[in-house]
Amino acid sequence: MAAVGERQSDGSGISHAWRALRHRNFRLFFSGQSISLIGTWMTRIATSWLVYRLTGSALLLGLVGFMGQIPTFLLAPFAGVWVDRLDRRNVLLWTQALAAVQSLLLAGLTLSKRITIHEILILSAFQGLINAFDMPGRQAFMVQMVEQREDLGNAIAINSSMVNMARLVGPSLAGLVIAGFGEGYCFLIDGLSYFAVIASLALMQVKPLPGKGLPVSSMATQLKEGWLYVSGFAPVRTILLLFALVSLMGIPYVVLMPIFAAQVLHGGPHTLGLLMGASGVGALISALSLAVRKTVLGLGRMIPIAALSFGAGLILFGLSRVLWLSMFMMLFTGFGMMQGMAASNTIIQTVVPEDRRGRVMSYYTMAFVGMAPFGSLLAGGLAHKLGAPHTVIITGTVVILGGLWFATRLKALREEIRPIYQAMGILPSALEPSLEPVVENSAG
Question: Residue 241 burial (CB < 10 Å; 0-12/13-18/19+)?
Fold first, then answer.
């Protein structure tokens, strides 16, 4: 671990790839989240399998996804204002504690065999309410954990690696636990895992941000300020529009995975775990490729490429009827999805003003999570009418079209963001023109 804290003069090697871990607060976050996220992914798989086992309905799979995410869509802008007003660590302490309660309630009802689809819908909506505050709070808090802005992109890449390592382990472990003991124990493990995050947050030593505690304008004024920034700044607006389209049409494929596992591939919970694990491997490869980057140069071009990879993976997955080929397609799907998410997050986090970070990241949350409930309903409805394979073929095609549209906007976006580079002291004439801001290598 000593190597993590060192800076090599050429910025190469392990210390460069993991340089954000030299910050104590981020190391604590990494440790706690690594444990908790495994439980989170176990709950996601267990919830989908439980709903499908109880109802056998693709439409209800979509409805549960909708109920778990629609509160985020409705409340995220208001939550973003509160994230900008309040101490972000305290916000996360509350959200993690409430999430633990939600998972433990789900575990108690399932283990006592009293769970019904109605309780699942209510508790899913409760989790969505928590996420409305947790996600923008978590994203905005990232810059406080790494302290130095040049390490922010690396921290986001490491965070993505952590999410996808859990995504690799969690579904596979969930498949084993469901097959051996039932879904309730997945929820119990998840509920207990939140205490690791709570402990890591409590141990942090966080410097207060300038302006915190000062008088603030009204909720309406701050909402308007956030909206005007997001809608008026073309690079952020365009990234979020593509991200919203991908979340609407592409990401909800997850709710259909139990149908692919059981009906298309004629398997069980192990098959579901293998499919989600393969997607996690692809996403992990993507995150690690971002972690070894020396700068964020080139990430703008990666956004449409990621959309094309994601969409193509979905189309070919929909055509497959063989497990090994479906798993192979999930690699491309996971890679494209994570590459687009992490690249978008890094670019937005680099340019956003600190006093609006919570509000801007709330719109990022809306684009990521908030559009997914509508996508879950759409995917469930299409699968009910056309079947799951045809559904992902259609949605994958739309994702590809979105990526092509974004590619046509890159040149104009470069010109609009260039004055911001100059204000940050960057010399665009000495660098390759690109959409994304260039952060100097932290070494030397």
Answer: middle
